[in-house]
Amino acid sequence: MKPDLALIVIFALSSAAFPAVEELKERAFALTDADILNYALTLEHLEDKFYREGLANYTQEDFINAGFADPFYANLNVISSDETEHVKFLTKALKTAGVTPVSECTYGFPSTDPKSFVALSSVLEGVGVSAYLGVAADIMNSGYLTAAGSILTIEARHSSYIRAALSDRPFPSPFDTPLDPDEVNTLASPFILSCPPQSPKIPLKAFPKLALGTLGAISTGETILLKTPGYTLKPRNGRATLHGAFITVTGPIFVDATPVNGGFTVIVPSGISGQNYIVLTSCTETVTDDTVVAGPAIVEIKN
Predict the structure, then answer these.
(1) Are 168 and 122 in contact (CB under 8 A)?
(2) Residue 237 pLDDT > 90
(3) Which of 24, 95, 135, 203 fits a 20 to 30 Å CA distance from 169?
(4) What digits encode the pLDDT tens for the residues 59-110?
(5) Average per-residue pLDDT in the chain?
(6) Cα 192 from chain centre
(7) 3 state DSSP class of 151
(8) According to DSSP H, which parts of 211-279 are helical?
(9) Nearest to 71 by CA among 161, 176, 205
(10) Terminus-to-terminus CA distance in the chain, angstroms?
């Protein structure tokens, strides 16, 4: 197995065509518990369809020939079953609360063979862990919080198993990275091609796309390229410079962002490893929806 396969998939996702950047609209109110459950269900629908579609496209023999020896295929089917159960559980919880659940949408996944499928699986599972972790503090109902935590731990197990299959460190950091719903929506929305018109709309926004432009293994101290595909990014509020912010559970790590043709370069700081996320921000004090100007981009740090 090539140890940087997930990086190749991240780069491919970064190079894909995405919708044009629209003017950002600030969220007028906080997410309710119903919004959060539907947000979680949106992600579970995406993962559920991803695994069902992949396992329909590739056989056990295909995975073995790609270097994923048994019982990997059987365990992928277990992961797929887990995601289906998550969809059923969240759908039932919403209906019990008198809330209309979001529907399964039409998706586009840029995997073309078992290796790229597994690499994309690793990325999606990592984002799923960060999504549940990032929204946990906003859940008011203790029962919902416990249920979300129960799903989070399973997603983390999925992530570790897939990372190990790719010869990545299964648990590269003592802490996972939280992402807020708008950051997750920015990463997930390119996979969602369309949704049924009757499906409820969740009050989320997407930031302008930030794309990793560096291919190959990335480690601390290296300079990486962050592309702003299809647009030129200017600082908000008349600020002279923009900064990169690597998101961590203990707070963002800010770095200088140097403008270059087509984007910005940043130097990877110490203290991060595994699947990480960087945004471009207008300040060096905090990362909020008011200060983020683009991103996040996914960066796999192989220290």
Answers:
(1) yes
(2) no
(3) 135
(4) 999 999 999 999 999 999 999 999 999 999 999 999 999 999 999 999 999 9
(5) 89
(6) 13
(7) helix
(8) none
(9) 161
(10) 18
Place of tokens 């990362």: 287
User: What does the block give as tokens for 84?
Assistant: 């289906």
d(CA 145, CA 74): 30
- Interstrand relation of 243-246 and 263-267 (parallel, antiparallel or unpaired): unpaired
Q: Which amino acid is at 138?
A: D
Task: Please give the pLDDT value at position 3.
Answer: 42
Is there a contact between 245 and 252 (Cβ–Cβ < 8 Å)? yes
Residues with Cβ within 8 Å of 121's Cβ and at least 6 positions away in sequence, in order, are 50, 51, 54, 79, 162
Tell me the three state secondary structure of residue 255: strand
Residue 261 burial by Cβ neighbours in a 10 Å radius (0-12, 13-18, 19+):
exposed
Question: Cα separations (Å) of 24 from 27, 234, 280, 289?
Answer: 9, 14, 15, 10
User: Which run of H or E residues covers position 31?
Assistant: none
Q: How far apart are CA 302 and CA 3, in angstroms?
A: 9
Q: What is the enclosing helix (H) or strand (E) of 193?
A: strand 192-194
> Length of the chain, please?
303
